[in-house]
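User: Here's a structure from my thesis project, written as structure tokens. My advisor, Dr. K., wants to see whether a designed sequence matches the one we expressed. Can you design one independently, without my sequence as a hint?
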């Protein structure tokens, strides 16, 4: 179990015992080594518990309280997140992060794709880095089994976890840029794995995740998600984001970092 998975498990336990809110306070911004996390929780009142129980119903993908969305019937192809109460996305996120770790260990960077979110109703040119997806590739005995050997595409890896990724991004990372009036128009975009520096230097054109029909034989257990976690000033000022046009192309020339060094 990774430290991130353990932290999410502890968070779920706190919520079960009556804690409703938490703050992630990681010590490192590494995307491969999940930082240790400290949770600060406050006690829910009995009235809040009753309201949460009454409101624990499925809702549209953009509405509902808490970290989640409407459930789907196809649990084998979609990473389901149920809305209605705080912390409802904790278990799916823990599962997705655990699978990501396993896939990264098996396949390395070849299986990874960086994920960005565009919030056009907030800023048409701004793309926020929100994490990474991993997918099973050929040549492993540990995945692509549930899907009868079907290798997921990068688009399927994101589409099958779309609601989990967007809910995390708009509720935990940048609610001021993606939540509320902006959430209905959110878009997901892809870049090659671990390409953050190249993206910043305007060397990479982002690829939009289009509406994708998951193929017969695809299984969500063959894909994972590693969420971006803000640290320090990023919590208030935001983390990595870049400008692109509507086709995901850089709007400024390529530049090099430390050219004179």
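Assistant: Designed independently from the structure alone:
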């Amino acid at each position: 179990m990774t430290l991130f998975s353990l932290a999410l498990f502890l968070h779920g336990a706190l919520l079960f015992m009556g804690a409703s809110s938490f703050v992630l306070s990681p010590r490192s911004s590494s995307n491969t080594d999940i930082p240790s996390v400290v949770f600060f929780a406050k006690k829910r009142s009995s009235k809040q518990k009753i309201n949460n129980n009454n409101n624990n119903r499925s809702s549209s993908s953009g509405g509902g309280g808490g970290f989640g969305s409407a459930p789907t019937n196809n649990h084998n192809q979609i990473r389901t997140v149920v809305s209605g109460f705080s912390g409802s996305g904790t278990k799916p996120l823990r599962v997705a992060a655990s699978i990501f770790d396993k896939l990264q260990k098996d396949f390395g960077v070849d299986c990874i794709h960086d994920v960005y979110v565009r919030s056009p109703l907030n800023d048409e040119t701004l793309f926020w880095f929100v994490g990474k997806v991993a997918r099973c590739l050929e040549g492993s005995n540990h995945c692509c089994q549930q899907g009868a050997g079907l290798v997921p595409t990068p688009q399927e890896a994101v589409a099958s976890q779309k609601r989990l990724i967007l809910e995390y991004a708009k509720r935990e990372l940048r609610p001021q840029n993606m939540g509320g009036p902006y959430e209905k128009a959110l878009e997901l975009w892809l870049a090659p794995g671990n390409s953050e520096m190249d993206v910043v230097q305007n060397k990479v054109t982002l690829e939009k995740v289009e509406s994708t029909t998951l193929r017969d034989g695809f299984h969500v257990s063959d894909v994972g998600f590693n969420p971006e976690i803000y640290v320090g000033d990023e919590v208030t000022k935001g983390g990595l984001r870049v400008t692109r046009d509507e086709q995901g192309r850089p709007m400024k020339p390529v530049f090099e970092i430390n050219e004179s060094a």
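When you compare it with your expressed construct, this may help: Confidence is low (pLDDT under 50) at residues 9-73.
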